[in-house]
Specification:
This is Pectate lyase. The protein has helices at about 105-110, 375-380; strands at about 85-90, 115-120, 125, 130, 135-140, 145-150, 155, 160-165, 170, 180-185, 185-190, 200, 205-210, 210-215, 220-225, 230-235, 235-240, 240, 245, 260-265, 265, 270-275, 275-280, 280-285, 290, 300, 305-310, 310-315, 325, 340, 345. By secondary structure, it is mostly beta strands.
Length: about 400
Amino acid sequence: MNTLTTLLIFSTFIPIIIASSYNADSYVPSYNSDVTSYVPTTSNDVVMNQIDSCWRAKTNWASNRKALADCAIGFGKNAIGGKFGEIYEVTDPSDNPTNPKPGTLRYGAIQTQPLWIIFSKNMVIHLKNELMVNSYKTIDGRGATVEISNGPCITIQDVSHVIVHGISIHDCTRGTAGMVRSSVNHVGYREGSDGDAISVFASSNVWIDHCFLARCYDGLIDVTHASTAVTISNNYFTQHDKVMLLGHNDAFSADRILKVTVAFNRFASALVQRLPRLRFGYAHVVNNHYEEWIMYAIGGSANPTFLSEGNYFIAPNDSTAKQVTKRETSAKWKNWKWRSSGDEFLNGAYFVPSGYGSCAPQYSPDQSFTANPASMVPSLTIDAGPLNCVVGKAC
């Protein structure tokens, strides 16, 4: 990115609480497959959110990459990725699901020791089957343009401490049944991935930041099967139906432990629903920019808890789809804790709150942060998605 000259830290804001149905089955978005048209560009003066102000203005970011691991906020704050490991450089975009070559992304991702994975050059990676990421890994795309596309994509399963930063993941397809290596010591039979961009399954301490996600077979990000301690931030979502699923199904009560922070993301045009959709668990949805939706923005079932704080909601022009919220249930939901605090609603958008008592996120001191005023969100999210970082310059 261009040189940054402005760092701002914002104060608290005064909470405000503001209290349809739509069938999206027939909706077929007109998709532009050119990823580069969505890469953010900014002026020299950039207002940075709490995550970016931790590292982006430093011209030595490339020689101190692991400092990024200290910059997360919210429930995924303690995701350290490969902070205490060696740097591993991806030089080869090829892929072999069972016997990956040194220099490939898969070879680094399956290692048992912590690794901070970077890329030697711009590359497009077409995975031949889902990429199983082992614990204590960072996939860091800064300094290169990295795309994972037109094949199965990323699976984070039964692991912890994973950071995915600064890559484009799009046009993901379902995986095929077959053998896939998940570590240097294990290759096992996989039934075939669902076609998500990133699937977080029974995992904890995960941070997904500054990625571009679009046009996948299933979801863009799924966090399921009792995963927890996850932060999803600074990402650019576009051109998709079921965007973000938090929780497996209405019978899987183990997802009660699920805790996710969704912050500073840009939910752009041609998104239909699930921004996010939650079951059982807790989601703090804070300082995100919603540029319309086709069906709804925030939805859920099985008595989840939402705090929507300081978001910037622009409703679609469709008069039947102005409501931000949707409860997927025929049962009583008025005791479910769904709150709006300090949100800004434009073009007729409105939030239907419910429940009583506090629904604060109860962050630990190191996870805690202060939400910014919703009026600042367009500026704070202008650089959502991969950054054009140049070595030797502020990002």
